[in-house]
Amino acid sequence: MIAGNRARLRFPSLFRHRMSIPIHDQLLPYVTQLPERPAEAVTLVVIHCTELPDLATAREYGEKVLYDSGAGNSGHYYIDRDGATYRYVPGTRIAHHVRGRNAESIGIELVNSGRYPNWFDSRQQIMREPYTDAQITALRELLTMLRETFPNLRHIAGHEDLDTAMVPASDDASRQVSRKLDPGIRFPWNEVLEGSRLERLTRR
């Protein structure tokens, strides 16, 4: 009997759950340029929304090279409006997705228009698009899978809770707006946290 079959016999519920959420691997071209880390280093999940119209546009942004290393900004996982889940970066590599917390975190991006295309217009600072039921179901399943995979994963936060910087408004430089507002007021935190065994970190 091979090792994988032994594990399935010893931990059948774990393997049943892992197979219940299909992950589509679409690794970014520069993924091997991202630093590696052990699974034990991951302690935090950060929830983002793309603030872009669709997954294809988010992919274009993710593939843009922004650093001397040849890497760019990207989450690890992306969840489309129909619940389809994509892995752009393995959890054992450090992606650029949140200021100051990349080394210990996994970024999950939900496709949502957010404030697009006027992100910093002071008159358009409300995130109006609701998240779909399919996205939230997929997110809950993904969080369970991540808890099984990363033994020290204990916390979850919104991007807006960790990146609290303000920037001049694009329509009036004398006014300040939040650099990040995702996942925003339409995100169902209570539903996502229920049964997740993750503690939310909130803005201080």
UniProtKB/TrEMBL annotation:
Pfam families: Amidase_2
SUPFAM superfamilies: N-acetylmuramoyl-L-alanine amidase-like
GO CC annotations on file: outer membrane
A GO BP entry: cell wall organization
GO molecular function, one term: N-acetylmuramoyl-L-alanine amidase activity
Domain N-acetylmuramoyl-L-alanine amidase: 32-169
UniProt cross-references to CDD domains, sorted A to Z: PGRP
Superkingdom of origin organism: Bacteria
Catalytic activity: Hydrolyzes the link between N-acetylmuramoyl residues and L-amino acid residues in certain cell-wall glycopeptides
Keywords linked to the UniProt accession: Cell wall biogenesis/degradation, Hydrolase
EC id: 3.5.1.28
Root EC class: hydrolase
Official protein name in the record: N-acetylmuramoyl-L-alanine amidase
Naturally occurring in which organism (per UniProt): Rhodanobacter glycinis
